[in-house]
Amino acid sequence: MSWCLEMINSKSTERINASHYCVQNILYTYRDKNNKSDTKLNKTLCKAHKKELIDTILSYLLNWLALVSGNYEQHVYKESQPVSLLCTEYIVHLQRQE
Predict the structure, then answer these.
(1) 47 neighbors 75 (Cβ within 8 angstroms)
(2) CA distance 97 to 12
(3) Residue 54 belongs to what domain range?
(4) What confidence tens digit (pLDDT) does each residue in 67-82 have?
(5) Which phi and psi angles does 80 have, rounded to 5°?
(6) What are the residue ranges of helices labelled H in the chain?
């Protein structure tokens, strides 16, 4: 995960795209979904790996975003909310600040 985050923090569009591709494929692998938008998720596989991997990766990304944006002190992790929702809310928050 550290490697992917270092690549996302790059000024090179190619590196950023490569890192995004890697993270997306890791998540797709554990969700049993290929890159086709019409593919349905394997709910059993998703549920089995949700806590141990999917939420961990998304939490890591959320914390990293908060740290590199300078908003780490303002970032509050809410256990009751899904991590994917927190990531989306935080990205929208960062976009509004720009």
Answers:
(1) no
(2) 23
(3) 1-96
(4) 766 665 555 555 555 5
(5) -75, -15
(6) 2-8, 13-31, 43-49, 55-68, 83-97
